[in-house]
Every structure is written in structure tokens, then in C-alpha cells.
Write a structure and sequence with these properties.
The protein has about 325 residues and is an alpha/beta fold. It has a domain at about 1-55 and about 205-290. The chain contains eleven helices and 14 strands. It has helices at about 10-30, 40-50, 60-70, 75, 95-105, 120-130, 145-155, 175-185, 205-210, 215-230, 295-305, and strands at about 1-5, 30-35, 80-90, 110-115, 135-140, 160-165, 190-200, 240-250, 255-260, 265-270, 275, 280-290, 305-310, 320-325. It has an eight-stranded mixed beta sheet with strand order 1-5-4-3-6-7-14-13, sandwiched between helices. Strand 4 (about 110-115), helix 6 and strand 5 form a beta-alpha-beta unit. Helix 2 (about 40-50) packs antiparallel against helix 10 and helix 3 (about 60-70) runs parallel beside helix 5. The longest helix is centred in the N-terminal third of the chain and has 21 residues, at about 10-30. It is globular and about 60 Å long.
Length: about 325
């Protein structure tokens, strides 16, 4: 498997500078916040893989069953002899392997381009997906749209974009339209995307998934403070912060927070300043928006796509929605 790192010579310095700016901006905000994209350093990616296999966390299991059911159906919709499958945020690749194998079984030549900011994710991928005569793999370590630009410049095949899991739910209604329209701009006529949407359901089911019984989600969130300590010279004491996940029915979203358990000042050397936390003051970390079918139709229409089909698991907890680019 070939690994291409885009902008490697500048990446480390640029990424650290952007991380510093985003932490400074977030901790100066009222209320305080930190961007969820910084969860996924190498350690965070490993913890998240454990979360996805936990019994309390239904989305991965639900989506896996969907993909197992539809992997032989997708090649009947995308009938080219050769196809580029591009996955945004690949994880360990166990779900994308189902899609790839479905095309290979149909006799299609597959060029797989996983795109992820974490090189560690690519190491996990190598354990699950192997190249052969029908499958070539070029893993791209970069931001999504840098990676998509690279693929577009190097291949003219029809493309299927995989944006699996519930990653799309991390965007609010304005952000998701911007993201999807930007995705549309990178694609050609009749390219397709397969997007995972976590659906609205019983609130207790949601609360269990985002507050798992083994504390993996807690560890995942607290790792962001560890990352600030390691990379920016912070002095966060993890024992003085508590993970809190809740559902906001007005927004239709799960929300994740870290809550300060006492009055304290946190110094961050790289920023040359301290940040004061009042007792029980929260840092907002993440939204995870949930959807109904009308929401999915709205997003596709507003951003230049046509819904071909929504595929559901047996409980209707989750859907993978197949869209075609309209141009």
C-alpha cells in the first residue's frame, strides 16, 4: 500500500500553529469550546476504534449490517469496469472493505483512496485491506479536500465517495451544507457519494451510546486535554475534569462537554497565557446531529445531489444514503 502525505514538509509546523490558534480562540470564547477535529491524533484514533466496537455504541454495528446487505447492490448502480472509491476518514477500513469486496465480486477494478489526517489510521487499514490484481490502494494523509484534489488530478475514473459513520453529524445545519457543496465542487457529473446518517431515536439509546459503560468516550474526550498538554505545553489535570454527554432535543443533537470540577487556572506555555475555569464551567467539544428522512432530502437538494436510495438497518437506527452528483 502506497502512502502519500500531502504537504509533509510544512504540515507539522502549520498544523501546530493552527492547533494553537484554535485552542486560543476556543478557550477565550464564551462558553469555552474546543474543535472536535482535534480528537483524532494517533491516540484518539485508537480509542475511537475501541468505542466503535463497544456494545453500547450502536452506529458502527448498525452501519456494518447495512453495508453487508448492500455491498452486492452498489455495483448494479455504478456499473463502470473501473472505479475510484475514496473514503473520507477511513478508520480501520473494516466497513469500506465490504464495499470494495462487493465491487470486486462483480468484476470491477477498484482504486481505493482512503483519506485521513492520521497516519496511525493508515497502519490500522493495512491490517484489514490487502492489494491484489483487482485492487490498488493509495492512502493519502491530508485534510479531506486536499486529498480529493490530489485524486482528481491523478485519476479520471468515476468516483464513489464514502463518508461513513456519523461524521456528517458533527456539522451544524449551515456547516453541513457548506461541506457538502464543497464536496460537490470536487466531483464530476454522475459521481456518487454514500453518506452515513445517524437517525433520531429513543433518547436513552443515544445517551447510552455517548456515555458508554466502560468510559471509553470519557477517555476519548479527555485525550484532547492530554494532547494540549503534550503539544502545547498545557498543565491540564485530567482528574479535575469530568466528561458529560447529553441530548439536546431542540437542536436534535448529542452534545459532549468536559466540565471543570473546581476553580482552577490552566497555563498553556505555547500560548504564553493562562485560562481561568470556574467550578463546573464547561468546555463544549462536539455536536452529533441526528436526522430524519426529510432532513436528508433537504440537504441533497440544497447542495446539488439527488438521493438514489436510503438503505436502513433492521431497527432503523441508521441509514447509508446513496447520492448522485447533478451537474
Amino acid at each position: 500500500m502506497k502512502i502519500t502525505v500531502i504537504g509533509e514538509e510544512l504540515k507539522n509546523n502549520d498544523a501546530l500553529e493552527q492547533f494553537s490558534i484554535d485552542v486560543l480562540t476556543g478557550l477565550c470564547s464564551k462558553p469555552k469550546m474546543l474543535p472536535a477535529k482535534y480528537f483524532y491524533d494517533d491516540i484518539g484514533s485508537k480509542i475511537f476504534q475501541k468505542i466503535t466496537s463497544h456494545n453500547d455504541y450502536y452506529p458502527t454495528r448498525s452501519e456494518f449490517n447495512i453495508l453487508k446487505d448492500i455491498c452486492s447492490k452498489l455495483p448494479k448502480v455504478l456499473t463502470d469496469e473501473e472505479i475510484d472509491i475514496i473514503e473520507l476518514g477511513v478508520g480501520d477500513g473494516h466497513k469500506s472493505k465490504l464495499v470494495i469486496d462487493g465491487f470486486k465480486d462483480a468484476g470491477t477494478k477498484v482504486n481505493f483512496y482512503p483519506i485521513d489526517i492520521s497516519r496511525e489510521a493508515m497502519n490500522l487499514l493495512k491490517e484489514n485491506i490487502k492489494e491484489d490484481d483487482q485492487l490498488s490502494i493509495e492512502a493519502i494523509v491530508s485534510e479531506y479536500f486536499q486529498g480529493l484534489k490530489y485524486v482528481r488530478e491523478h485519476s479520471k475514473n468515476k468516483k464513489l465517495i464514502l463518508f461513513l459513520g456519523s461524521n456528517v453529524g458533527n456539522f451544524n445545519i449551515v456547516q453541513v451544507q457548506g461541506f457538502l457543496r464543497r464536496l460537490w465542487l470536487t466531483l464530476g457529473k454522475e459521481d456518487h457519494v454514500l453518506i452515513g446518517f445517524d437517525l433520531k431515536k429513543d433518547i436513552n439509546k443515544l445517551l447510552s451510546a455517548y456515555n458508554d459503560s466502560d468510559g471509553l468516550t470519557r477517555d476519548f474526550n479527555l485525550n484532547l486535554l492530554t494532547r494540549i498538554n503534550r503539544e502545547l505545553g498545557g498543565n491540564f489535570d485530567l482528574d479535575k475534569f469530568q466528561h458529560f454527554g447529553t441530548y439536546n432535543p431542540s437542536l436534535g443533537a448529542m452534545e459532549s462537554y468536559l466540565v471543570s470540577l473546581e476553580d482552577q487556572d490552566i497555563k498553556i506555555d505555547e500560548l504564553e497565557r493562562s485560562f481561568h475555569f470556574k467550578p463546573y464551567e464547561a468546555i463544549h467539544l462536539e455536536y452529533s446531529f441526528k436526522y430524519i428522512e426529510n432532513d436528508i432530502d433537504f440537504l441533497s437538494e440544497k447542495t446539488g445531489f439527488e438521493v438514489i436510495k436510503n438503505y436502513y438497518d433492521e431497527n432503523k437506527y441508521f441509514t447509508d444514503s446513496l447520492w448522485k452528483v447533478l451537474k
